[in-house]
């Protein structure tokens, strides 16, 4: 189930990665279809590979997509939880996609009495930047209300991922260090991954 959505990509498809940072996913997929990246902070592009720098665009998902084309795939990985206005973001995404296209979303899961697993959620609870956790019913209803039908979903984030998240938070916010421990995404417990198909215009 892990990233099986990639098997749906065809050479004629157009794909947009929202919240693309330095374009690593764009670089990975550039030989499979026509790829583009969008990020609100263009300084993230400074470390991008030269092969895809011209594919990266500055923009805010809370505004209409700055492209004169519609997409067949839109990736929204680790973005939705940071927004004040997820409804507007999904409206803009719907308008920027072809009917029959797919959106791939990852975002944290709400776990009653255990949301403190996420240091970013704790910071938000004490007045920091938004970092929501979503219940399954809430997230599915949100997508369906903007014209998307759920085709597949699973959970990612192992206990090892949880441990490294806290260690990296300690390095970043307590020690003010740039040191980070890497942890790959694998099936687990903490992050929703949803593949949904655009069924209708809104």
Essential attributes:
single chain, 24% helix, Rossmann fold, 202 residues
Radius of gyration: 17 Å
Number of strands: 7
Mean pLDDT, nearest integer? 92
Largest sheet: 7 strands, mixed
Count of all domains: 1
Classified in CATH, the superfamily is Vaccinia Virus protein VP39
Task: Write a structural description.
The chain has 202 residues and is of the alpha/beta class. It has a single domain (4-109, 130-158, 185-198), classed as Vaccinia Virus protein VP39 (Rossmann fold). The protein contains five helices and seven strands, in the order βαβββαβααβαβ. It is globular, with a radius of gyration of 17 Å. The model has no long low-confidence stretch (mean pLDDT 92).
Record the SSE blueprint.
Layout: E1 14-18, H1 24-29, E2 34-39, E3 56-58, E4 71-77, H2 86-95, E5 97-108, H3 119-125, H4 136-145, E6 148-156, H5 159-174, E7 191-198
Parallel strand pairs: 1-2, 1-4, 2-3, 4-5
Antiparallel strand pairs: 5-7, 6-7
Brief description of this entry?
This protein is α/β, with parallel strands linked by helices and 202 residues long. It has five helices and seven strands, in the order βαβββαβααβαβ.
């Amino acid at each position: 189930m892990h990233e099986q959505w990639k098997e749906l990509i065809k050479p004629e498809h157009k794909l947009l990665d929202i919240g693309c940072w330095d374009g690593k996913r764009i670089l990975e997929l550039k030989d499979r279809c026509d790829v583009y990246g969008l990020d609100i902070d263009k300084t993230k592009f400074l470390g991008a590979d030269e092969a895809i720098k011209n594919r990266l665009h500055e923009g805010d998902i809370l505004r209409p997509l700055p492209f004169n084309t519609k997409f067949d795939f839109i990736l929204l990985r680790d973005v939705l939880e940071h927004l004040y206005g997820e409804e507007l973001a999904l409206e803009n995404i719907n308008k920027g996609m072809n009917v029959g296209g797919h959106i791939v979303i990852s975002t944290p899961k709400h776990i009653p009495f255990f949301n403190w697993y996420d240091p970013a959620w704790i910071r938000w609870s004490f007045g920091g930047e938004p970092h929501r956790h979503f219940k399954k019913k809430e997230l599915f209803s949100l997508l369906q209300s903007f014209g998307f039908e759920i085709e597949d979903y699973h959970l990612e984030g192992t206990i090892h991922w949880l441990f490294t998240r806290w260690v990296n938070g300690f390095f970043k916010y307590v020690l003010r260090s740039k040191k980070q421990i890497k942890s790959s995404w694998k099936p687990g417990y903490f992050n929703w991954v949803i593949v949904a198909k655009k069924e209708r215009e809104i």
